[in-house]
Automatic annotation (TrEMBL):
Superkingdom to which the source organism belongs: Bacteria
UniProt-recorded name of the protein: Lysine decarboxylase DesA
UniProt record similarity statement: Belongs to the group II decarboxylase family.
Keyword Lyase listed: yes
Cofactor dependence: pyridoxal 5'-phosphate
Underlying gene: desA
The species this protein was found in: Isoptericola hypogeus
Amino acid sequence: MTKSSTLLGAATAADYAGALHAVVDDVAARVAAARQPFCGASRRELQALVDDVDLDGAPVGTPAALRETADLYASHAVWFHHPAYAAHLNCPVALPAVGAEAMLAAINTSVDTYDQSTVATLMEQRLIGWTAARIGFADGDGVFTSGGTQSNLQALHLARERALTGADGARLRGAARRERLGRLRVLATTSGHFSVARSAQLLGLDDGAVVAVGTDAAGRLDPGALARALVDVERAGDVVMAVVATTGTTDRGCVDPLGPVADLCDAVGAWLHVDAAYGGGLLLSPRRRHLLDGIERARSVTVDFHKTFFQPVSSSALLVRDGADLARVAWHADYLNPAEESGEPNPDLNLVDRSLQTTRRFDALKLWATLRAVGADGVGAMVDAVCDLAAAVHADLAGDPELRLLAPTDLSTVLFRYQPDGVDDARADALVPRVRRVLFDSGRALVAKTVVDGRPCLKLTLLNPDSTLDDVRAVLDLVRSTAHGLLAGEELLALDVPPCRGTHPRLPARSPLPEAVR
């Protein structure tokens, strides 16, 4: 029988080392040489390159395939480490985490059952305990997930199952379950993540199950509005399944007042879920940890390590204050985690019992290596660095005559738009997507756009602790010059007679130029 020379094994260990060395050397050279965050290739150009690859063609071998793949992918990737990348919640990644990524990919552990993972399960559980302790959960538990969307979905699933439990502790069934399901409500602000509404849909809740709670002028959840919403739900004969607070709203980077929100949830017995996907890094912050005061009173918490812990995607976790809550997702299969565990190796460590996933990567290894290499305080200092940078940019723009700040932040976002005196709201609105598109098409800088209080704006999401104020100023200068160019183009197009008509010898004579452009 002919053995494959493609699969990693004892016979191909040297080939594996050579292949990875070549990839690492190539990527390192590209990272060092990157002069802008994106090459600027058009979608049509990229589509042609992708379509040109014959996936059914003759094999070319591992070295050639990896070189070809790098030329296609790495040459046209978006580089999050570049200081002119300031668009979304993408972070540059910690070196020890990248090394751990290579390790876990090669070994290919799945942490669904203990007999597939052994020490990996123990390491993940240690990190879950560490994160729970940072939150303030004395007896907390949890599980790693693919990202904040999955973490939020699982948290709301747990809250739903609790709400569908009768007074006797048994799960409601049949007509009683259907009737209760139709009355469940989730209270959240419109500043929260869209995954809350999508989770409600996936969980079979009614179309109007997510009730919007009012916010203050900064976009934070207003406790007074939450109190009124809780009363309104009760008066309508409905049931509060969960209240969702956010620490690090996607657009504004604001932190909801967790203490007052927890007071209200405790008063009515509501499940409080805190979406700390963005703001979870504050758990390690030497100077901003107080922004999360009250998070220990939540029933569940989402933390995305692949945001403010500087981990490669994917790496997230759902933490619960009471470990017994995770049992609500347990599902048994005879071939994997049978309900009758007699003779099974360490059945209490089959993490599939607490996860929505079955096969699951050992993403915890990346965080483990990072904490050992950099230390928790080191990661916290990087979180403070990006927040400090955002604060410096806000101060820099406070009196800017052209770039107008739209909202404050608690974390590392900057919301602004180009609108000097003389440019009305409609023209400023129209400039937002055009400026972003021109910058993206050039590849020189990547910024995001959103809508705040009904107005389009540009958004910087600063997640690179090595970026400086001058780096951000360079991006803002590109925004200014792009807006200048677009406005100048509008003025030229608005002229009845192009200015070159009076000067170019090969153009037929037309009416005289307007006085303003002579």
